[in-house]
Batch of 4 targets.
Target 1
Amino acid sequence: MLTCIIRYQIDPTKKDQFNEYARNWGQAIPRCGADLIGYYAPHEGSSTLAYGIYNVASLADYEAYRARLAADPLGRKNYEFAQKEKFLLREDRTWLKCASAPHGDSA
């Protein structure tokens, strides 16, 4: 399992637009095949950093998921919304693999 962490720099005056964007992905991402952990908006501290986090089985699965997401009506609408509203100033993806599993005491 791979975890994709998307780090966004957002316009702090457009937090409501980012929240709408996040809610839309909350519907589209799971429907298109990724395991969405969640989207996180600024609350305390930085007013410009936000995150999206989801899991996929492999990079090949990620490519198939991205194709489905691009073809999804809400996915397309959300891409267009972000372009029109310009609340995303920067977007960086990092791929991680969990190194601490299994968690907890198995005894």
Note: Strands lie at 2-10, 35-40, 49-56, 88-96.
Target 2
Amino acid sequence: MLEEAALKVVRLHRFEGESKLKAFVDVSLGDFIVKGLKVVEGKNGCFVSMPQERSKDGKWYDAFYPATDEAKQVLSKVVLEAYQE
């Protein structure tokens, strides 16, 4: 189970302007750093997009993702709270 205390935003780079991409975020998860999360403006507000990499078939796939819905909610909450500060 992922706890908020184990998850910390270590870098947040905001973007100005009219782009839907609002920020790049790096988080620490215990002794690991996950780079390349994005805060994106969607139809229903901001959401967290996972880091992605392009495969040989030209499609983009998540390189990191939470294993449970609960972990995804905790990750999103921590990142979006840091973005709104």
Note: The chain has a mean pLDDT of 93.
Target 3
Amino acid sequence: MTPSHAAGTPAQPSATDGVRRVSVLLYSDDITVRDAVRAAAGRRPARDVEVAAWRECATAEAVIEALDVGGHDVVVLDGEATPVGGLGLCRQLKNEIFRCPPILVLIGRPQDGWLAGWSLADRVVPHPLDPIAVSEAIADLARQRVAVG
């Protein structure tokens, strides 16, 4: 991954209905966590945000390859993933990808919030996952991506 790589074109609101259609990259080595995130966010995490596509990755290498290709508007990383945790991966992505998409990190407990600051995460949600917190975070990051783009 090169520092000058752009991570894809941000989602734009549809001219007809004002809904942002976004692509979400989801990383966890645990399929139950990936299922929980998709169920929490649903197809429409907010009235103005629709998840048009999910890209699921079970390894850090797959995340890096997917971001090299581009086209993802929001990234969700499991901080509890092994062998590469989402917090360290987040810091790597933020330091290496030009215009890195906003990243939500799922942390093990609320007390780990300081680690999220170190990782440069844009938002955090602690386990156990609260569906409202997950959907709000994804929607907010999708809006942020459009505003920056």
Note: The longest strand covers residues 49-57.
Target 4
Amino acid sequence: MSTKVAQANLTDAVKELRFRWERARSEWDDHASRRFEKEVLAPLEPMVIAALKSLEHVNELMIQARRECEDNG
């Protein structure tokens, strides 16, 4: 799987998670739901952003490595 595909998959999964959470939240609004959102969902956002940035960096490194291999080829 390419890093671009991984980025797209991760982005899509987060969008789907947000959509489903909003639907669940419309019917589940109590202390447990707020705790779940605070302790589970909220920390995911910065982790996903970091993962996406890391995947982009890996993609750039792979492009650079390919270029260097082609130049030496």
Note: The mean pLDDT is 94.
